[in-house]
Amino acid sequence: MTKNTQSRFGFVNFAETWNGRLAMLGFVIGLGTELLTGQAILNQIGL
C-alpha cells in the first residue's frame, strides 16, 4: 500500500480546484437569492 504524501493545502492543484468550485457555487447561490428576493446582494447584508 502506498501512502499519498502530496499536500492538499497551499497553492496546489487540489486546493485550487476546490477553491474555484466553491467560488462558483457561492456565486450561483448569490444570484439565486437575488432573483428570489428581488434585492441586490449588498442590500441583503445591510450595505
Defining key terms:
47 residues; 2 helices; mainly alpha
Short description:
The chain has 47 residues and is mostly helical. It is 62% helix and 0% strand. The protein has helices spanning 13-37, 41-44.
Commentary on this structure:
By secondary structure, the chain is mostly helical. 62% of the residues lie in helices and 0% in strands. It is built from two helices and no strands. The model has no long low-confidence stretch (mean pLDDT 85).
List the SSEs and their pairings:
Blueprint: H1 13-37, H2 41-44
- Rg, alpha carbons: 17 Å
Number of strands: 0
Amino- and carboxy-terminal Cα gap: 54 Å
The percent range for helix content is 55-70%
SSE pattern, N- to C-terminal? HH
- Report the average pLDDT across residues: 85
What structural class is derived from the secondary structure elements?
Answer: mainly alpha
Major sheet attributes: none
Number of helices: 2
Query: What form results from the Cα inertia axes?
Result: elongated
Strand proportion, as a percent range, falls in under 5%
Q: Oligomeric state of the chains?
A: single chain
User: Which residue ranges are poorly predicted, with pLDDT under 50 across at least 5 consecutive positions?
Assistant: none
